[in-house]
Amino acid sequence: QVQLAESGGGLVQAGGSLRLSCAASEGTISRYAMGWFRQAPGKEREFVATISWRGSTTYFSDSVKGRFTISRDNTKNTVYLQMNNLKPEDTAVYYCAATVPPSEKYDYWGQGTQVTVSS
Q1: Is residue 80 within 8 Å of 72, Cβ to Cβ?
Q2: Most CB atoms closer than 10 Å: which of 45, 63, 84, 92?
Q3: Residue 63 pLDDT exceeds 90
Q4: pLDDT of 59 above 90
């Protein structure tokens, strides 16, 4: 079991950058594949990015590919989402989540951090 907490959200102008962090306060993330998801007002939660437990494999949604990168530091029990060239449509609450491979069902979720991109 692992408890996750996101940080790093905020207000940024379009074209700007933010780096989100997801830290495990209990447990270790090293055995989990980690993902980032987001939910905009009035919309369903959507997948953003995922990284394998070793960090060797990453996947991104088409909407963020080329602008976002995901990374992890298992020694710090932390996963990161670097977001560059932000757009107003990236405005959402961002959540990190953990799943035990090979399952694709994410069992553990953080509380989320708000990202707002102004035009």
Answers
A1: yes
A2: 92
A3: yes
A4: yes
The pLDDT value recorded for residue 40 is 97
SS3 state at 13 = strand
Residue bearing tokens 């939660």: 45
Regarding beta strands 78-83 and 58-60, do their DSSP bridges make them parallel or antiparallel, or are they unpaired? Answer: unpaired
Question: What pLDDT score was predicted for residue 79?
Answer: 98
- Give pLDDT, residue 1: 86
Q: Are the CB atoms for 36 and 96 separated by under 8 Å?
A: yes
The number of angstroms, rounded, from the C-alpha of 23 to the middle of its chain's C-alpha atoms is 11
Which residues fall within 8 angstroms of residue 97, CB to CB, at 6 or more apart? 4, 34, 35, 36, 37, 106, 107, 108, 109, 110
Does residue 53 contact residue 77 with C-beta atoms inside 8 Å? no
